[in-house]
């Protein structure tokens, strides 16, 4: 059911290639960290993204344990995918180490009532999403198993307006953090 929901959301968002990994819902904290990071590292090496976006270790606004673990796995994979001494058995033929240029954690400027407290990272990038807000809401609603959360989600998303917030965690070019309006600012094709 969740795979069908994901496929429906991808269609709404015009995602051409979505991947669902085979891990049990609500149980990521019980998974083998080394194995999970290995799998994500391989996907980064194959796809070769310039930017990686994930939750923060806080679990984002929901504080969900799976969201926290996704952050840990993705953060390690971001760093390890570019190193030839991490999962060297993956490296052969077209699979080579790949350094994504930036890592962001999603963040927001609100918390949810009646939830455990979370400490969210400050926004270093604010992206105007304009008319994509409606597609975002529709994609969330494609997850019919989450129907009880729809009103809470929609009310908070609409309150936030047409902006997405992110926190720059790491980048290949050192320097001070500057407020960004484009997650691809400073990205170069030759890295």
List keywords for this structure.
single chain, 191 residues, alpha+beta, Rossmann fold, 5 helices, 4 strands, 12% strand
Structure write-up:
With 191 residues, the chain is of the alpha+beta class. The chain has one domain (2-171): Rossmann fold. It is built from 5 helices and 4 strands; from the N terminus they run ααβαββααβ. The chain has helices at 2-13, 33-47, 65-80, 132-141, 150-160, and strands spanning 51-54, 102-107, 125-128, 163-171. The protein has a 4-stranded mixed beta sheet with strand order 1-2-4-3, with helices on one face. Helix 1 runs antiparallel to helix 4 (132-141), helix 2 (33-47) crosses helix 3 and helix 4 (132-141) runs antiparallel to helix 5 (150-160). The mean pLDDT is 94.
In short:
This protein is an alpha+beta fold and 191 residues long. Helix content is 34%, strand content 12%. The protein has helices at 2-13, 33-47, 65-80, 132-141, 150-160, and strands at 51-54, 102-107, 125-128, 163-171.
Q: Would you tell me the structural class of the helices and strands?
A: alpha+beta
**How does CATH name the architecture?**
3-Layer(aba) Sandwich
Question: How many individual domains?
Answer: 1
Largest sheet: 4 strands, mixed
Arrangement of strands in the largest sheet: 1-2-4-3
Which assembly state applies to the chains in this document?
single chain
Number of strands: 4
How would you spell out the order of helices and strands? HHEHEEHHE
Question: Termini, distance in Å?
Answer: 39 Å
> In percent terms, what proportion of residues is strand?
5-15%
Helix content: 25-40%
Tell me the Rg in angstroms: 17 Å
Low-confidence stretches: none
Q: Can you tell me the CATH class?
A: Alpha Beta
Give the number of helices. Answer: 5
CATH level 3 topology: Rossmann fold
Q: For this structure, what is the CATH homologous superfamily?
A: LmbE-like
Overall average residue pLDDT: 94
Based on Cα principal axes, name the global outline: globular
């Amino acid at each position: 059911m969740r795979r069908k929901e994901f496929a429906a959301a991808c269609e709404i968002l015009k995602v051409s290639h979505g991947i669902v990994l085979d891990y049990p819902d609500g149980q990521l904290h019980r998974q083998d960290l080394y194995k999970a990071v290995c799998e994500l590292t391989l996907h980064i090496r194959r796809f070769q993204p310039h930017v990686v976006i994930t939750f923060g270790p806080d679990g984002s606004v929901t504080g969900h344990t799976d969201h926290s673990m996704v952050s840990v796995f993705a953060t390690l994979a971001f760093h390890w995918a570019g190193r030839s001494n991490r999962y060297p058995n993956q490296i052969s033929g077209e699979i080579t180490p790949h350094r994504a240029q930036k890592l962001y954690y999603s963040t927001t400027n609100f918390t949810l009532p009646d939830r455990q407290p979370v400490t969210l990272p400050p926004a270093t990038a604010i992206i105007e999403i304009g008319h994509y807000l409606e597609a975002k809401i529709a994609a969330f609603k494609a997850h019919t198993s989450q129907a009880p959360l729809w009103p809470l989600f929609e009310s908070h998303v609409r309150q936030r307006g047409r902006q997405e917030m992110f926190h720059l965690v790491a980048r290949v070019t050192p320097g001070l953090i500057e407020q960004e309006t484009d997650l691809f600012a400073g990205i170069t094709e030759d890295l």
